Structures are given as structure tokens and as C-alpha cells.
Amino acid sequence: MRYRASALLIIFLFVLGLFPLMTAYTTAQGVQNGPPTDKIYVDVRLSQEVGIGDVAAGRTDLFLWGVSPAVLQRLPEQVKDNIKLAESRAGFWSLIFNPVQTEDLGPGVVNTTGGEVHFNPFAIRKVRFAMNYLVNRKYLIDEILLGGGEPMYSPILPGNPMLDMIQDIIQKYHLTPEGDKELAKNMIDQALTQVANELANYGYSLTKQSAPDSPAGYWWTFSGPGVPGGSEVVTVNFVIRIEDERHEEGLAIANWIEETGIKVNRLEWDRRKAIRTVYVSDPHDFVWSIYTEGWISMSDFPYVEGDFSFFYSPLSGFVPAYPIEPWLVYRNATIEHLGNMIDTGAIANPDQYKQVIRQIYELGLQESVRVFVLTQIEYWAYNPRVSNLVTGFVTGPANIWPYRTMSTPDGIVKLTEFSASGALFLTVWNPVLGFTGYYADIIRMAIRDYGDFPDPATGEPIPIRSTWKVEKNFEVNETSLELIPKLDVPSDAMVFDPVSEKWVTVGPGKKSIVAVTYNFKFSNWHSGVWKLLSSILR
Asked: What is the pTM of this model?
């Protein structure tokens, strides 16, 4: 495809001062248009309804945002009659909790960076665990998403065959779509009553105070040294995203929390403010307590070990904030060890793989620093003039295949991204340090050449610009289950030393568990500039 790597090439040539040469070369060669697409234009709409309406009117060809049945229901019939829909199941919701506490002051007591003392109910593991039952996933799916979702209790998306590995654990804890509100209320009441008895030994008081404005008929109240005014109603700061249906989700869950006697401060924030506060600030500030997370799977890859590491291990993901050492208010040595095994691939066989996944899931469920809620069934609108649109079975059009397959009669494709007003979803275009935004990455997919990518039908990696051969040789320590490497590493093999900032040889006597040999298939750029660069750089 002629557009595949143009932007990165231009950036690279600007650095080398070769862009004028490239321009002259491509002009001299002439433009040779070819299938499936010659040009792609990308723009933005600040409304889902407007974006889909423009698809129906032919002003754009594909709206790069999956919408729920609730959004589709609001559309005029004329719009619905003039669009086609591609389904995806890549978006999902979860709740993350701030478990910060100052342990020497007593369970749940936090002395904030501002010098105030408060009680944090989500520092209590049993309270967090009870949220699995307090949340009525079926209500959220039926009433808010109008059926456009499936309940979710783990990082594994519904429909993934690997869900069978942990299905019995889900059943063991009696997790159901409807939840069990009365069970949750009793669990929270018992947990806080036990904590109240313990706090008396630290000079603090946690009691129920009658209150006509409380759905429970009372508010839990916290008193003691350092508490503002000496006494306050136990209140959690709930960061609720406002750009999509998570707004209604958050408001519903806030109401359910207040039925347990815990007051909720509803912080209805946009993307920018929510993400910076929850993930990139010190949890000891105690600005937030719970957040309506939203995630999008960017791959149809069926293997889930990386998700378990990311969502449950504080060293691998955001649990509950960016893993800066002073900010790590939540640690679990076993989960971190299992997460490290997943991240490094130090797993001997399929049985151990299953064992590690099951163990980290059950621990993560018991800790419930993150509670999974549901996966969304969403629909991407495209114009009927588009043909050959290949989509992933999970991601829908949010992968590399549409750019490489979709066709239009004139060879031009117009794409429209969605960004909520006031908080653009696009991030800085940064091919050097990496892409942190969903939509920058979507554009990058169109111009990047991949060594391999998941098959849109099976999720298994298929070769594109590389092939590979894998060799394994190791033994397993039967006691520790650690892998003992047996492959000889060539003494002149090189690794990068971050201290000296140099490539250094590994030296003799090194062993490895696995060796992968890659064979890359290089080719010309879309403009044929590869030969020119080769002669200049030689």
C-alpha cells in the first residue's frame, strides 16, 4: 500500500536532512495508484450522533468509535437506513479503588499529604471484595447499555475460550450478573463493625449515626485526632467519567454505595482530569477513592497472561496508580511474583501456565483492588460504499486490517475519529518515545509495517514482515518450579547496558531458556525510496 509508512519515513528523513531528496525522487518516479486504497483522510467529530450522521450522509466513510445500542436507538431512521455496522467486543469497564491507609494509625485510617486524617473504607479488603456483589451488572447492561454488553468478572473477555480455566472460581464465589445487594451490605456492615472495634485501640471512633438523608437510615461517622472538625461522615470520592455511558454507570453505583451507609462525593469529570488524578498522582493525596475505568482491547490475541499481570500486579500496571515507589500504596508479594513469572515467560508447560493464571486470578479477586464489571457490545458505523472491510472478532475495525483491505470506488477513504468536547482523546504524535493514546495508535497502524499481527479470525500471530524459529532447552526445579536454562548463549552476543548507555557483550558461560531467530522481509517504501536511501547512507 502506498500510504503505509509515509509519516514515519518523513520524520526520519527530516532528521537526516534528506526530505528534499525524497521529494525530488518521488516526483521524478511519478505516482502509481493501486488497490486497495490510494489516500486516507482523518478528521474528528465531537459528537457520536454527528459522526454517525456524517457516515450516513457520505461525508465520511468510517466512524472510528464503537457506539452502544443506546446511541443507535436515538438515531433517526433515515440515518440507520444509510449505514452498515461492524460489531466489536473490545471495550470493557472496571472499577479501581484507592486502598491507601497509614497502618500505624489503625486499619483504614489515612494521614494525607495535606496533613488531614480521614477514614478510607476501601482500604479494607472485605469492603472492596463486597463490591463484586453490590454491583448489579445485569441492570447496567439492560438499563444503561440497552442489552449491549455481557457481565465480566475477570480480565478475560466473555467468549474467550481461556475463560474456561477460571470458570469454576467464578462459580465458587457465586458471582452472578444480578449481584447480591443484601449480601454486599451485610459484608460491608460486618467488616466496618470489626474495624470499629479495632480502631478503639488507636483512639479513633467509627460509628453509625442516624441520618434522614441516608438511604440506609444512617451514615458511618469517623472521629478522633486530626479529623477535620474532630468528626466527619465517612465519604468516598467517586471519580465518574462523563463522556459516555460510564456516567450513568457511576451514578447508579454511587447510589448503591450509599445504601451501605457510606456517603459518596460524585466527581463527574472528563477524561483528562480523571486520568491525571487517578493514574498520575500520589494516592496519599486522597483526592479519589473509586473510578469508573474504561479499557479497549487493541488486539484479537487470545492469550491473556499479560492482562492478569497488568490488571493485578502493581509493578506491571496501574494498581492503583503509576508504579512510582512512594506511590505504591498496595503491595502483594505473591501477586507480584506471579506477575513477574508471566512477564518474563518463566513458565515451564501448559499445566503451570494454567496454575499461575488461576492463582493470580483468585488472589486478585480476593484483594479486589480492581473489580471487573462488563464488556461492551459496540457497533462501528461505515458507509455502504465501503467494501472488503476486514474486522477482528474482538476489536472490530480497531486494528491494522481495515487500512490494508477496505476499498471504495474512488480509492479514497475518509475516516472520522470521536473526541469528547473539551478533552480530546488524541495524544502527542510520538514515534520515538511511544504512543500513549488510543487514537494516535490507530493512525499509526495505518503507516507502520508489522513483523506479525494477530489473525483477525483466530487471534493467532501470522507473519507479515518476518518469520521466526523458536528453540527451547531447560529443566524445571521440582521444588521451586523455577526454570533452569540449558541453551548456550554466544559469548559475542550483545545487550544494552543502561548504566553505561552502551551495547556490551555478554561474555562466555551464559545460558538461556529460549532462543528465537527472526528473518525479516525488507522491501521498498511505498514510494520506492529504499534504493535511494541505501545508496546515500552507504
From this structure: 0.82
